[in-house]
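User: I'm putting together a teaching handout on how sequence relates to shape, and I'd like one worked example. Could you take Signal peptide peptidase from Parathielavia appendiculata, show the sequence you're using, and then write out its predicted structure as tokens right after it?

Assistant: Happy to. First the sequence, then the structure tokens directly below it.
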Amino acid sequence: MSSKTSSSDGADISSQSTPMPDGMRSPPVFAFARLLEPQYLLVVFSALGIIWLGAHGSLRRPPSAAPPKLKKGEKKREDEKFVEGLVASDAIRYPLMLAAVLMGLYYLIQWLQDPAIVNKILRGYMSIMAIVGVGTLAGDILDNLKSLVFPTMWADSNGQVYHIDPDRRCQYVVNKSGEQTIVKDKETPLPGPLSQLALSTASRRYLWEFRHLVSEEWTVRLAVYGKSLVKFDLRATDLLRFTVAGAFTLAYHMTAWSALSNLVSIAMCYVTFMMFSPTSFPIGTMVLASLFVYDVVMVFYTPYMITVAKNIDAPIKLVFTSAKGASMLGLGDIVVPGMLIALALRFDLFQHYQRQTKLEPVELTTKSKSDTSPDATVTTTTTQHRRVKAPYVDTRGQWGNRFWTTPLGRLFPVPEATDAIAATAFPKPYFYASIAGYAAGMFVTLTVMLVFNHGQPALLYLVPGVTGSLWLTGLLRGELKDMWGYTEDGSLDTEDVIIEVDGEGKVVKEVGGKQRESENGGIKVKGVGGVEEKDERRDTPGRQELFLFSVTAPRTSVPA
């Protein structure tokens, strides 16, 4: 039997096993039994795993959180933004653009009569693009591995949380009153039982210095005639991740090995979640609905999708092989619904910080002319409330904290590990609901494919599963208005908002506020770290700096 489920980008899900006569249906019981075969379980769980990773990788500061508090000497970071924030017009533009690309590939293959030429061109193009994808995925993996070795906190079996301070090179605990007490017998930057290792003074110093060098940013600067042309920050892991990305991409381009092709495909999916996202739930639903129609038309009513999917050999699909056959999963069936699932996770994070918002009373004074005397003024003082947002905890580097603060046998960190909870263990009802809807859609897709022995457009089942589960969750939680009003276009990112509340403390209306400006907003262009760029020409008599390339390592912190 050979059956195919085409995706929105020309890739496909297919299965190959014992042939059956065309048009013959498999008994439903037989189809359900085959869903438990390894290649079909790999299809479902691989898709769910990639979406889980991509959604968590796309997390960034929500508009309901204030920028994180900076430590002494730390540079202010500009908030990350999506390269392409989808708008309502994309619901029309994307299907038309994909159809044009798909038809172009179809007629190119028909004209050349040799898909190998197209495959070589696509493989070369994808190899270049894969450096960014594999580099991004490798960098985040290295950051998480580093956080496992050098976390900033950990908890013992009694639930006591120990904080690791790289500036003072010590570990300390915090009591209920907020006072810090340094733990004398824990002098290493290592967590758990490793913190009690009996190391020499020199070994401890090298450990602290190594932790500092791999955690802090390096500065690279290129200057000509005293004027900085290039100046940017990077970490030690950045050098390693691009080395890994280049090696993997070169190996894939030279060998076209299926395992490397799968890795490149996973990385491309992952980086897509970092770059593309609908700006709101209504827009995301509209885009998915339009691609839903596009997928159905291209699979059932045209030869374009199936023909291109059969002839293209490029990292646009995942290939799984087993003793009973092989299965392929198209990347479009992951990325398209996955973008809305990632938005659901960020909405969960938005709600988590929104619940932490506090109302601070403020007195507003207004002056007006007196009705009795033209020259007199009347001063009126009213008490309003200012919305105070909780500071954002960056998710990067927090997975190690979550691991070391979660006791054995539990799923969540101890309550005292507030940073790990805020970054990774916050409530995720909409994310879990959309994941369940996606899994249900995948199982229905595979079941129909096996029963009817005919290609099925995957988005026909995935789009209703994901969008239906999300809007149904909002309905059951009474939060449809919040879902409809949530947007990531920047309009919700306000500060110093004055609001009126009723007797029960509920918000009646917003009196005033201002939108938060980005780092590069305003009139003056800022340089690295928010410092205004200056001409750095040297005026030393008889000598002049013509060319400079420097790499500055972070200064080693030495305790007082």
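A couple of points you could highlight for students: The chain has a mean pLDDT of 78. DSSP finds 15 helices and 17 strands in the chain.
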